[in-house]
Amino acid sequence: MKRSRTNLIAALCLAPSAVLFIGVIFYPILRTLYASLCEVDKKAQPVRFGTLENFRAIFTSKVFMGDIIPQTLIWTGTVVVGTLIIAMFVAMALNEQLPGRRFMRATVLLPWATSLVITAAIFKWLLHPTQGPINGLLEAWGAMATPPAWLARPDLAFASVIAVGIWVSIPFTSTVLLAGLQAIPDELYEAAVIDGASRWQRFRLVTLPLLRPVMLVAVLINVIHVFNSFPLIWTLTEGGPANQTHIIVTYLYRTAIWQREYGQGYAMAVVTFLFLLIFAVAYTHFFAREEVEQL
Question: What is the DSSP string of 19-55?
């Protein structure tokens, strides 16, 4: 009797969260999956179930398959790897006993606390070809006779957007890695110094192995966040010039909202969800198995 009462109380406590999960997450996913397999009218309403035309349209599109998917993978991989490398150095610097360390930690967190739209708008101004300070400094220093239009040239726009993506991803990753560094006992470093380990050996043999679980979490969260980074790219370039900075989520918005091809938009949303789901499951399974084997 007592156990049944406890189970009932637990179920009642979990019920609001379950309703929220079903209504906010589970139902929209099922609704999107259902709509992607339907003919969709101009009001974005599914009208007939049982067609793969939406998926056929995107997978036979030269733009989607030839530009959007490769750019999404390059964008995600470059930003995540670049962020992890730079954030590691930032976290290690903030972990040292330096004067003003608390102020520096707060300063690093500022871009994270700022809206992505505001950050992107600031960088859009900084990279403006005629009014931006970056080109003004390059011209004043004589580094370039004619400073480029960073976000308007196809050969520079994607690289510029990637650089901004790395910038806005560093604060979170640095904070996560810093927490991991602070959890490593100082005694391990002291023992390594006594054994004659160099600074690089201490980093490779002590820091990296013990930081591995934290790095795995940081990479997973960053991949999901960067893969879906709509506001940053849309504010900077709206996917231009000539689709050179589009990723799946921005191209989805353009296709579904601007061109009113809602069925293709549903199909792209399903592709995005399935890609991230498969990646997350495979990633966690592979590295969890590695952790078990090492133990």
Answer: HHHIIIIIHHHHHHHHHHTEEE-TTS-EEEE---HHH
Are residues 206 and 192 in contact, defined by beta-carbon separation less than 8 angstroms? yes
Looking at the whole model, is its pTM more than 0.70?
yes
- What is the distance between the alpha carbons of residues 137 and 149, in angstroms, rounded to a whole number? 14
Domains of the chain: 33-294 (1.10.3720.10)
Helix, strand, coil fractions of the chain, as percent rounded to 5: 75, 0, 20
CA distances (Å), 172 to each of 81, 87, 88, 114, 212, in order? 14, 9, 11, 12, 17
Across 94-108, 179-193, 214-228, the highest mean pLDDT is recorded for 214-228
CA dihedral (36, 42, 44, 45) in degrees, to 10, reads: -90
Residue 107 in contact with residue 175, Cβ under 8 Å?
no
